[in-house]
């Protein structure tokens, strides 16, 4: 910080706010801390009685917070994002489409360990909407050495930290099992729940088949939808441990690769994920019909964005995988699945 004469201040950065008072009319900030003094500001500053100013010296190697924010934006912002207006050195990223937010968590950690700069994002893998603010970054001081910014660029090695993967329109087959539903003792209430959810991601339901608790029939229905071109087959019910729960066996019968039977998410423990070539088969437990958000929403959204999940991806849900069961569900504005 240095004290200088106002007439020498052009191009320098103000270290403090400058207040203007017009009796009876206005009292407020005429110039903000961080403002870069322009030639035309000098007479205004003098008219406010400011003949001297505290400024940050803008040496060759120093970068102002606004320019630094733009520099950081260019190195961390990935696909399907746009930046908002820079405000007081802060820049935010806005999603340009509906999709899944991908955060390179290791790079984000490395970046945030550098000091004098920060970046905060929504959680990795959350669904985001077009127009939603998803991340923000800024430097901490008013000015920063250019070498520090260049160092950040170097450690990122041309990999962005945050991006959005848009949903692709997928074809969905629904296989609903349960003797009580098949025999008309109760009305199917699972199909409409799945249909509503998948349509929110722009997917098309190509059909639903209601099966009795019979492995062969459930298996045949899955194969039928795969042959009809379904990208994802959603099997509902029959996922737990009683003798009539045959859906896992039927999915195994297709010879698909079983990624998991069981997920560290409550509700959703009895979930199954399997891949047959580039097609996905999900075994969705009964809780997905009852609870507003379950493991199904998390895995389905990522699948629609084109991701193929590993056992590790599923296992990572354990931390944050316990739903609080609030009276009024606020998901995604809570820690569930984050
Ligand atoms: N002894 C145990 N019991 C349960 C366990 C367990 O580990 N040990 N797991 C519980 C968990 S967790 C869940 S989730 C449910 C799993 O349910 P399922 O997927 O096996 O569901 P079903 O047994 O087929 O049905 C449960 C319930 O929902 C009704 N249902 C099913 N499908 C439909 C439909 N299409 N439309 C309307 N209603 C439907 C069904 O009639 C049952 O009442 O299991 C826990 N139990
Ligand atoms: O698959 Mo069930 O959570 O865990 O209700």
Automatic annotation (TrEMBL):
EC nos: 2.10.1.1
Reactions this protein catalyses: adenylyl-molybdopterin + molybdate = Mo-molybdopterin + AMP + H(+)
Origin superkingdom: Bacteria
Alphabetical UniProt keywords: Magnesium, Metal-binding, Molybdenum, Molybdenum cofactor biosynthesis, Transferase
Family annotation (CDD domains): MoeA_like
Top-level class of the enzyme under EC nomenclature: transferase
Pfam families per the UniProt record, alphabetical: MoCF_biosynth (PF00994)
MoaB/Mog domain segment(s): 173-303
Cofactor: Mg(2+)
Protein's pathway: Cofactor biosynthesis; molybdopterin biosynthesis
Signal peptide: none
GO biological process, one term: Mo-molybdopterin cofactor biosynthetic process
GO MF term set: metal ion binding; molybdopterin molybdotransferase activity
One Gene Ontology cellular component: cytosol
Family: Belongs to the MoeA family.
Record's function text: Catalyzes the insertion of molybdate into adenylated molybdopterin with the concomitant release of AMP.
Record PANTHER family: MOLYBDOPTERIN BIOSYNTHESIS PROTEIN, MOLYBDOPTERIN MOLYBDENUMTRANSFERASE
This protein's name: Molybdopterin molybdenumtransferase
Upper classification of the organism: Bacteria, Bacillati, Bacillota, Clostridia, Peptostreptococcales
